[in-house]
Design goal:
8 helices, SIR2/SIRT2 'Small Domain', alpha/beta, six-stranded parallel beta sheet, about 30% helix, three-stranded antiparallel beta sheet, single chain, 2 domains, Rossmann fold
């Protein structure tokens, strides 16, 4: 296996997807038919679904909270923490996962592109998202202390845009890395390569002259666009992949 050299000249942008969390045993909640308890996933993960049946949405996310709270970070998460400690501000982790496992492992420079399962925000007022680990009883729709509006999970749902501030943070880091005069590396782990804009990051990095790595158990949709590709579980590959210099 080729090694990824992480030295004082390296800037590293990492993107993680569902495969990294799956190795910790995070339940997917979606059956082989794409349904959750016979509901299309859009019923519980879209603004329209929330307006139609907020009780159902909160039952779904309370189940997900309970499931995610019961699992722990794996060696892949731990490897990324070690890389961040080594590189400092020359490291940024963008994740599509909402389970909070990267932060629980100790990652600090994290962009949670799709939100966080353990945060809640108001659907009505401008109250900032807040930490919330509550597993609400069936039939509960929590309300905002500030305005009385319905609270909702702080998740990017189908039909919603990613937070522009999050995308700017990733783009700014990529710009600094690619113009630093050093070596700029992008590594994707556990991603399908289907969901945009995340799936397009590899193209942007290559255009900027960066080095691209993919670590995946199965071939990703965009795997041919990576310079280096390592097949395997991220929890097994990542701890052995890097040489900290």
């Amino acid at each position: 296996m080729e090694h990824l050299i992480l030295d004082s000249n390296t800037w590293l942008l990492v993107l993680t997807g569902a495969g990294v969390s799956a190795e910790s045993g995070v339940p997917t909640f979606r059956g082989m038919d794409g349904l959750w308890e016979n509901h299309p996933i859009e019923d519980v993960a879209s603004p329209q679904g929330f307006v139609k049946d907020p009780t159902l949405v909160w039952r779904f996310y309370s189940q997900r909270r309970a499931g995610a709270a019961a699992v722990h970070p794996n060696p892949g998460h731990d490897a990324l923490v070690a890389w961040e400690r080594h590189l400092g501000d020359r490291f940024l982790l963008a994740t599509q996962n909402v389970d909070g496992l990267h932060r629980r492992a100790g990652s600090q420079r994290v962009v949670e592109m799709h939100g966080n399962l353990f945060k809640t925000r108001c659907s009505k007022c401008k109250r900032p998202p807040f930490d919330d680990t509550t597993v609400y009883p069936n039939g509960t729709v929590p309300t905002c202390d500030a305005c009385g509006g319905r609270l909702r999970p702080h998740i990017v749902w189908f039909g919603e845009y990613l937070d522009p501030d999050d995308m700017s943070r990733i783009e700014d880091f990529a710009l600094r890395g690619s113009t630093s005069g050093g070596r700029f590396v992008f590594l994707a782990a556990g991603t399908s390569g289907v969901v945009y804009p995340a799936a397009g990051i590899v193209d942007r990095v290559r255009e900027a002259g960066g080095e691209t790595w993919l670590v995946n158990l199965d071939p990703a949709e965009n795997s041919t666009r990576f310079e280096y590709s390592v097949t395997g579980k991220s929890g097994e590959v990542l701890p052995k992949l890097a040489k900290l210099a």
